[in-house]
Write a structure and sequence with these properties.
This protein has about 220 residues and is of the alpha/beta class. The chain has seven helices and five strands; from the N terminus they run ααβαβαβαβαβα. A five-stranded parallel sheet has the order 3-2-1-4-5, sandwiched between helices. Helix 1 crosses helix 2 and helix 5 crosses helix 6.
Length: about 220
């Protein structure tokens, strides 16, 4: 008891020590989580993977790089999905513009490609894709985005489409040095940013679940 009361008096006398200890513990936990996040990023799918795997109702590409769009068109051409949704496209860019971005030589397939200009972030991508999927009666999709973005994308899409079958199709941008992420300032900065956004999405999702349990709809 005397030891406990002494520690309590010390904490009251030197509150900065408790704050410092908490800060160090939080920093270590955050750093450990970052290392886990970076080292467990999915590898990019090989080029020949577009011709393999189960067929899904849809292919959904989250814009943010030419390789993502190129992979989406390749998957559609290989019959890996019946329809292709490219979400988060800047206003003013049409199907032909996306074809040029992906350096495609075949003719644009306007019958099977839908472009979404409304989504402005990953959560918006998931919501717009979910609405599109429901309108078309789709229950499965192949999700195309960058490897570093895939975990957060799966989190948001899983919340927006809890009953859907989601098949990840990660791509690795040329400039992203995934295997030596800590050695390259640009890759390190992007990894830290994405990890922080992933944590924020986890916290927001947990808060929304808690509010929903209390009868509030925080997602609207």
């Amino acid at each position: 008891m005397a030891g406990a009361s002494g520690a309590s008096r010390t904490a009251r006398r030197y509150p900065w020590r408790s704050a410092a200890a908490f800060g160090v513990a939080a920093a270590l936990a955050w750093t450990g989580g970052l290392v886990w996040f970076a080292n467990s990023l999915p590898d990019g799918m090989p080029r020949d993977a577009v011709a393999t795997g189960d067929r899904t109702d849809a292919i959904v590409v989250l814009t943010g790089g030419a390789r993502r769009v190129e992979a989406g068109f390749d998957l559609l051409a290989a019959g890996r999905g019946g329809m292709l949704l490219i979400t988060g496209v800047e206003r003013g860019i049409d199907l032909e513009g996306l074809h040029r971005l992906a350096q495609r030589k075949d003719a644009p397939r306007s019958c099977c490609v839908v472009i979404d200009h409304l989504a402005g972030n990953t959560r918006g991508n998931a919501r717009e894709a979910a609405a599109w999927m429901r309108r078309n009666g789709f229950t499965s999709l192949r999700l195309v985005t960058a490897s570093y973005h895939m975990r957060r994308a799966l989190l948001e899409f899983g919340r927006a489409l809890p009953a859907a079958r989601i098949v990840p199709f990660p791509v690795v941008p040329e400039a992203f040095k995934q295997s030596d992420w800590w050695r390259w300032p640009g890759t390190l900065s992007l990894t830290v940013s994405e990890y922080t956004k992933y944590l924020a999405a986890l916290v927001r999702g947990g808060a929304e679940d808690a509010l929903a349990a209390l009868g509030y709809d925080a997602a609207t």
